[in-house]
């Protein structure tokens, strides 16, 4: 019986998502009532309510007490190149987006084998974590975390908390030509703290990009980067 219910639940969710993605419902339009769906699919209202709650957690709907559930406004998706050698800020501004960046963290990290290996750092090197929250058109959409070595950027402990663009900081320190040695993309779910920053629901997947940035002239690795993007706000161009 439980397997049968799960099959019906998935069928209803798939149908609602198909209708949403094909324009059957308009932004802020009221969705079918729990009674209507319960009658149509011959299931209980409680099961319909659970289906709607799942769609809310996926970021598609919002509810108003006593009035029902409505289709959430879907903002324009942003196209990005899957690379670590392009300025996020510059790219978005060139495409007409209103961008705000907030520095949310500057701290020296404890030794972490993976991060130190990515930076080709010695175990006694000082590595700093610089995190920025990206807000586009008044909506938080990404968290950029850069790991950099104090050996390459001697003043990072004093200047890190003011950084909003790493590429501007590179140029300030004499690095002007960059390249990316690798880019790894995976789908994950945000931590509680990341969801708070990004203001996203539990079931909105996060696109996690791991990449780096290397100075072409000296071959020094300038940073190892982890970026968490809201998957409902981005599409990628991969070369």
Automatic annotation (TrEMBL):
MF (Gene Ontology): DNA binding; DNA-binding transcription factor activity
Keywords: DNA-binding, Transcription, Transcription regulation
GO BP term, example: negative regulation of DNA-templated transcription
Keyword DNA-binding carried by entry: yes
PANTHER family (UniProt xref): MANNOSYL-D-GLYCERATE TRANSPORT/METABOLISM SYSTEM REPRESSOR MNGR-RELATED, MANNOSYL-D-GLYCERATE TRANSPORT_METABOLISM SYSTEM REPRESSOR MNGR-RELATED
SMART domains listed in its UniProt record: HTH_GNTR, UTRA
InterPro entries with a match to the protein in the record: Bact_HTH_transcr_reg, Chorismate_lyase_/UTRA_dom_sf, Tscrpt_reg_HTH_GntR, UTRA, WH-like_DNA-bd_sf, WH_DNA-bd_sf
Domain HTH gntR-type intervals: 6-74
The keyword Transcription is assigned to this record: yes
Name the record gives this protein: HTH-type transcriptional repressor YvoA
Source organism (scientific name): Clostridium butyricum
